[in-house]
Design a protein that fits this description.
The chain contains seven helices and seven strands. The chain is an alpha/beta fold. The chain has one domain: Flavodoxin domain (Rossmann fold), CATH 3.40.50.360. Strands 1, 2, 3, 4, 5, 6 and 7 form a seven-stranded mixed β-sheet that branches. Strand 5 (104-111), helix 5 (119-130) and strand 6 (134-135) form a beta-alpha-beta unit. It is globular and about 75 Å long. The model is unreliable at 170-187 (pLDDT under 50).
Length: 201
Amino acid sequence: MRLVVVSAGLSVPSSTRLLADRLAAAVDRHTPAETEVIEVRDLAVEIAHALTNGFPGEKLAAAQDTVAAADGLIVVTPVFSASYSGLFKSFFDVLDRDAVAGKPVLIAATGGSARHSLVLDHALRPLLTHLRAVVVPTGVYAASEDWGAEGLPERIERAAGELAALATGLSARPARREAGRTGAAGFEVVPFADQLARLAS
């Protein structure tokens, strides 16, 4: 699997990059992955030039090609003003319109407060859906207090498993149980068609 990580952290070291690395490592535990990281801050000048003149520089063009060739993506942004960073958005603005179409994407964000966790579903998911990516169900948000706390490792593993399953063409859903088998809650599973047949008899 060719995994590409887009990290939009601005500082060094960066909690955004830390989360990106943990997510990539988790994906690799589910399925072997050749991982390449794109640090968006290193492309800031070329992104600005591409926005104004329409021509990507050498490093930006290479990053665009890397995204286009990916089997799966992890995209991580810090939260600024309750949304993704402007630099993060600008990177996607200069990608080819079909660059992420049909690709499985894991969305993640970091912020100083848990109050910004809705950025995943109010900003990141709509953006990637508009670009026709296949966004995995579980997004990962890490506030300052989440590091070292319960819950974050589990969310990372769940999201990574979903991305790995989509990227390798597997279904993340459990196998369908046969009639007469016991369901997860301990109840007998009866197909709907059988239930209708019983009513008709």
